Amino acid sequence: MAERSRVLVFDSGFGGLSVVAEIRKAMPDAALTYLADTAVFPYGHLPEADIVARVAELMTVAVPRFAPQAIVIACNTASTLVLPDLRARFTIPIVGTVPAVKPAAERSRSRMASVLATPGTVKRDYTRQLIETHGQDCRFTLVGSQRLASLVEAEFAGETISDDDFGSEVMSCFVDDGDRRTDTVVLACTHYPLVLDRLKALAPWPVEWIDPAPAIARQIMRVTETVAVEGGGQGEDIFHATGRLPPDGLVQRFGFAGQEPFVI
Ligand code: DGL
């Protein structure tokens, strides 16, 4: 039997499941391990140095334990900070998730686009730099949502979230200056694509929503082709969490056999 690549997908919470869904489509045979830092979630409000230290601490335990061929940091809030540190620590390929500013600037016709993200991602030098380098002549509105990731997490844990709650978190993405209006919204937090149907229904006018997950899945496929597989693909696909675990049905919907606490 051919060896399978094992990929470790990391996020602060359940958001990385939007990336898992795309990896499963692109690489149906890949073995996936998920690690959610639900003990510390949400990262969007944490000081930058705390995020760098926390992700390094977790990966130092997770990489030898799970022996992945590649890691996906399926979290914009972390990726916009931790990638240089992680790449200095580990030799396996590490794929990050960062705001899809370049595709938005390429696709927007009105030249008005918004980046919907956590407050942390919106504040990052990395994000500002992306807009400077790849934003072309497009006018970007940065929208740092205080609660959207937590609302998604609550909805996935079984709570009912109202349209008003979701709507108030995204309305600032829609800018109309009289002559033109926003036509493109970058989903720059992995939690948001999980509720895309709700967001579409609440939008005051239709826009193109950009989810980077399919591109991340393609990148994972490319990098795992070049890495030797040494037994990492054995065993079941398990969802691990440092704190609160999701409901059973949820992880099974994304192809995991079960869930376990992650103890450092
Ligand atoms: N899913 C994470 C992201 O892509 C953020 C959620 C959080 O605030 O922890 O940015």
Automatic annotation (TrEMBL):
An example GO biological process term is:
cell wall organization
KW DNA damage (keyword) present: no
Active site residues according to the UniProt entry: 75, 189
Q: Name one Pfam family in it.
A: Asp_Glu_race
Which InterPro entries does the annotation name?
A: Asp/Glu/hydantoin_racemase, Asp/Glu_race, Asp/Glu_racemase_AS_1, Asp/Glu_racemase_AS_2, Glu_race
The protein's annotated catalytic reaction(s) are:
L-glutamate = D-glutamate
Q: In which pathway does it act?
A: Cell wall biogenesis; peptidoglycan biosynthesis
GO-annotated molecular function: glutamate racemase activity
Q: Which residues form the signal peptide?
A: none
What are the binding positions for substrate in this chain? 11-12, 43-44, 76-77, 190-191
Q: Which PROSITE patterns match?
A: ASP_GLU_RACEMASE_1 (PS00923), ASP_GLU_RACEMASE_2 (PS00924)
Q: Which major enzyme category is it?
A: isomerase
Q: Cell wall biogenesis/degradation as a keyword? A: yes
Its keywords, alphabetically, are:
Cell shape, Cell wall biogenesis/degradation, Isomerase, Peptidoglycan synthesis
Its function, per the record, reads: Provides the (R)-glutamate required for cell wall biosynthesis.
Write the protein's name. Answer: Glutamate racemase
Species per Swiss-Prot/TrEMBL record: Hartmannibacter diazotrophicus
